[in-house]
From TrEMBL:
GO terms for biological process: proteolysis. Pfam families: Peptidase_S10. InterPro entries: AB_hydrolase_fold (IPR029058), Peptidase_S10 (IPR001563), Ser_caboxypep_ser_AS (IPR018202). It comes from the Bacteria. This is Carboxypeptidase C (Cathepsin A). The keyword Nucleotide-binding does not apply. Keywords: Carboxypeptidase, Glycoprotein, Hydrolase, Protease, Signal. PROSITE patterns: CARBOXYPEPT_SER_SER. GO terms for molecular function: serine-type carboxypeptidase activity.
Length: 494
């Protein structure tokens, strides 16, 4: 329940211009609430507004829109854990996890994540706000965040739009935020979804090495690893293959022997085949013997629900886009979703190599867009005529010198307190659960950090939290991760 509203506006009186002058550069709006979370009543405040991005000379480069939730009924609030939350894209607003996963409000949707009317939000009884404060950050050109330039100058895109540039300016912004909100004594966590997985891998080391901010945890939700993603390499095709098994099982396209088993019984089989049979076969390319090629194609058909002759026509390299079009082509004449293959789509023609659109994404935009616009302006009271960018202009994005895996490894090696949690949905065809496991192994090739790395899988897709059962389970996994890693376990040493 909302109790009162405190409005404070702080504007920087310097010769700068936001890309859209209707957005103030430095603004704070605070509202107060109570809620039942994890079975207990709590009181909290929501602080929303904009905070500048400063360069090394103190010049304002951008203004980032954020929402910060913190409990008001606990002692020593400065020592309470804080979770710093990002989404991905790159170019996606921090809306998805904000009003559907970890925040105190969630979408008005059905139990499987489909939009229903009237649009809007409701209380989230599974939020992690009972154990940690949370700030949702929108990078430049997402949400209401915008670059700031001097008169007659252009936006310096290289300052913002790239793997390394993104982490650098966000780390500086977080330093300012932690200082302003007196959270230096708190256990600190960063969470990122999709491209946000790459972002937080990179950000962990950037915070540690250049802001001297040491974390307790990095959380990657359905992470995108661009060392593997869309490379069309043997590893890419093989590592993602178990997802085909999961999607085919969900749509009952596997043989009866597999279909009658539980999903978690058959996925280890598919993983073993992908790593130990399919990957070596793909590595041989055109030099593979016909006998082996046929044996592999037979097994691929067995574990994917796709006809053997189709797999052979693709030389064992079955693209995900083709799979989304092919799996139900002959039985239902429908496509399946890229980010969540539980969703079905209708194309103009049943023929073709890829779907016309992503049915799950349009479904999500259907429910998220009205909800975040209503919530921000009517509940949080951030009033503006500026469009809330669900996806903003951030391209071309500079993917060069992407050392995010190695940088996370270095951060964990140098900081014995730092733990990793990875969460993935089995029906996510964009950033697959098996690719997430693969990334974990590549982060730590020595295997010496394994005791501080955890994987959790869910029976849903990219946004596993849209399914009510997984919303509860995934938040509980986060809660347990935070409670475990925020404890005082003695000196930080090996």
């Amino acid at each position: 329940m909302k109790k009162f509203i405190l409005l404070t506006i702080l504007l920087l009186e310097i010769n700068i211009y936001a890309q859209d002058k209707r957005i103030p550069t430095d603004t704070t709006i605070v509202t107060s609430y109570s809620a039942i979370i994890n079975g207990k009543k709590i009181t909290y405040k929501a602080q929303t507004g904009t905070q500048p991005v400063f360069d090394e000379n103190g010049t304002v480069k951008a203004s980032l829109f954020y929402t910060y939730y913190y409990r008001t009924d606990v002692p020593k609030s400065e020592e309470r854990p804080i979770v710093m939350s990002f989404n991905g894209g790159p170019g996606s607003a921090s809306v998805w996890m904000h009003i559907a996963y970890t925040g105190p409000k969630t979408l008005q949707i059905d139990d499987e994540g489909n939009p229903i009317q009237p649009y809007g939000i409701k209380d989230n009884p599974y939020s992690i706000l009972d154990v940690a404060d949370i700030v949702f950050i929108n990078p430049v050109n997402t949400g209401y965040s915008r670059p700031v330039v001097a008169k007659d100058e252009k936006v310096d895109k290289k300052y913002f739009f790239g793997v390394n540039a993104d982490a650098k300016y966000l780390a500086g912004w977080l330093n300012t935020f932690i200082t302003r909100n007196n959270k230096w004594k708190a256990p600190k966590y960063i969470i990122g979804e999709s491209y946000g997985g790459t972002r937080v891998m990179q950000l962990a080391y950037e915070l540690q090495s250049n802001q001297w901010m040491y974390l307790n945890g990095v959380i990657m939700v359905s992470p995108a690893d661009y060392k593997l993603l869309r490379t069309d390499s043997s590893e890419d095709y093989a590592i993602n293959f178990p997802y085909y098994t999961a999607a085919a099982w969900y749509h009952k396209q596997l043989s009866s022997g597999l279909q009658q088993k539980d999903l978690l019984e058959i996925l280890p089989e598919a993983e073993d085949f992908a790593i130990n049979k399919l990957l070596p076969a793909l590595a041989k390319g055109g030099y593979i013997e016909d006998t082996e090629k046929n044996e592999i194609a037979t097994k691929m058909a067995y574990y994917s629900g796709v006809k053997k002759e189709v797999i052979l026509q693709h030389n064992l390299e079955l693209p995900k886009a083709y799979f989304w079009k092919e799996l139900l082509r002959d039985t239902q004449g429908k496509t399946i979703g890229r980010l969540d293959s539980r969703y079905l789509g209708l194309d103009r023609r049943e023929t073709g190599d890829s779907p016309d659109y992503s049915p799950e994404l349009v479904s999500w935009l259907h429910s998220f867009t009205p909800a975040i616009n209503y919530y921000t302006q009517n509940i949080l009271h951030f009033k503006t005529d500026v469009k809330y960018n669900m996806f903003g202009p951030v391209h071309p994005w500079d993917f060069s010198n992407d050392n995010s895996r190695e940088n996370l490894r270095k951060a964990m090696a140098q900081n014995p307190y730092l733990h990793l949690l990875v969460q993935s949905g089995y029906y996510d065809g964009a950033t697959t659960y098996s690719a997430a496991k693969y990334t974990m192994g590549k982060i730590d090739p020595s295997g010496k950090l394994k005791s501080r790395m955890n994987f959790k899988g869910y029976r849903s897709g990219h946004m596993m939290y849209l399914r009510k059962e997984d919303l509860q389970k995934a938040n509980q996994d986060l809660r347990e991760f935070i409670l475990k890693t925020a404890k005082n376990v003695g000196p930080a040493k090996y």
